[in-house]
């Protein structure tokens, strides 16, 4: 049975995932991703084979765009970390260019926005609130984008299953860059984030970390089934310096299968 603290957060996420009909999407992209690789437990230093099923969605609407993903994780060791766990992140960006109706492009930037995010880990009952700003870069290539998000990283945990932490900040670069070689379509997409260290209620500090998750994709659906932009295969490389604020550094390659619908 979920603790009372978990229920409001799940309700908040459900509201974000099901916006009102009045906010009809101008564009929408939903994916199911299957990943498999050898990931580290930062608290034991031991690695284990881990399967991750991800539901990911991005869409644009009249005043900005929304993005969320939900990870369903399970490892093979049963050590209390990533054992049938759920992790989710949601972000809504309010485009100042769309809201004002003005062209705000200046220098290398095409737009600016106000962003609000929420991160939630079910097993540890940890929540983080991330209000901040977005800088959207001018990328001329079709289908490509690059954003820089600068946000606060505010603890919203109850401290009943994991100790509360002090507040911090995050800088995140996220984007996608499609390209074609020899008639085959590929893309490199993902993000890299920096989160500043913070104190831990039980004593000590969580270290600052750098976390990168670039994906390399091949459009297998177009190549083999004449169905472009629906089925992709590739790899996701995960680099995490000071994983979850510990002394463990992770470098892992995961097999990747993506179905877009």
Core attributes:
3 helices, mainly beta, 261 residues, Outer membrane protein OmpK, single chain, globular, Channel_Tsx-like_sf, 13-stranded antiparallel sheet, Outer membrane phospholipase (ompla), Chain C, Channel_Tsx-like, 9% helix
The number of E-state strands comes to 15
Radius of gyration: 19 Å
CATH third-level topology:
Outer membrane phospholipase (ompla), Chain C
The N- to C-terminal Cα distance equals 32 Å
User: What is the string of helix and strand elements?
Assistant: HEEEEHEEEEEEEEEHEE
Tally of contiguous helical segments: 3
Q: Which range best describes the helical content: under 10%, 10-25%, 25-40%, 40-55%, 55-70% or over 70%?
A: under 10%
**What is the typical, i.e. mean, pLDDT?**
91
Based on the coordinates given, report the CATH architecture. Answer: Beta Barrel
Count of domains: 1
What is the CATH class name?
Answer: Mainly Beta
Protein name: Outer membrane protein OmpK
Keywords: Signal
Family: Belongs to the nucleoside-specific channel-forming outer membrane porin (Tsx) (TC 1.B.10) family.
Structure description:
By secondary structure, this protein is mostly beta strands. It has one domain: Nucleoside-specific channel-forming protein, Tsx-like (Outer membrane phospholipase (ompla), Chain C). Helices cover 9% and strands 57% of the residues. The chain has helices spanning 6-17, 96-100, 220-225; strands at residues 27-40, 47-61, 64-75, 85-95, 109-121, 126-137, 145-155, 168-181, 184-195, 198-199, 205-206, 209-212, 215-218, 231-241, 250-260. Strands 1, 2, 3, 4, 5, 6, 7, 8, 9, 12, 13, 14 and 15 form a 13-stranded antiparallel β-sheet that branches. Strands 10-11 form a two-stranded antiparallel sheet. It is globular and about 50 Å long. The relative contact order is 0.13. Mean pLDDT is 91; it is low at 1-8.
């Amino acid at each position: 049975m979920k603790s009372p603290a978990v229920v409001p957060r799940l309700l908040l996420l459900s509201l974000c995932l099901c916006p009102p009909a009045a906010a009809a999407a101008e564009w929408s992209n939903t994916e199911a991703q299957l990943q498999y690789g050898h990931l580290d437990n930062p608290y034991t230093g031991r690695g284990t084979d881990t399967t991750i099923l991800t539901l990911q969605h991005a869409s644009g609407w009249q005043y900005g765009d929304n993005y969320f993903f939900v990870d369903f994780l399970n490892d093979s060791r049963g050590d209390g970390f990533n054992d049938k766990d759920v992790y989710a992140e949601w972000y809504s960006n309010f485009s100042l260019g769309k809201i004002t109706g003005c062209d705000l492009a200046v220098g290398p930037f095409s737009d600016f926005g106000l962003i609000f995010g929420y991160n939630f880990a079910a097993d540890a009952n940890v929540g983080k609130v991330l209000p901040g700003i977005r800088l959207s870069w001018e990328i001329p290539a079709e289908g490509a984008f690059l954003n820089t998000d600068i946000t606060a990283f505010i603890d919203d945990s109850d401290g009943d299953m994991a100790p509360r932490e002090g507040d911090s900040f995050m800088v995140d670069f996220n984007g996608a860059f499609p390209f074609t070689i020899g008639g085959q379509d590929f893309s490199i997409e993902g993000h890299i984030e920096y989160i500043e260290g913070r104190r831990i209620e039980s004593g000590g500090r969580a270290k600052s970390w750098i976390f990168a998750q670039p994906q390399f994709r091949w459009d297998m659906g177009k190549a083999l089934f004449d169905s472009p932009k629906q089925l992709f295969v590739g790899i996701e490389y995960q680099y995490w310096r000071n994983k979850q604020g510990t002394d463990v550094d992770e470098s892992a390659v995961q097999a990747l299968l993506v179905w877009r619908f």
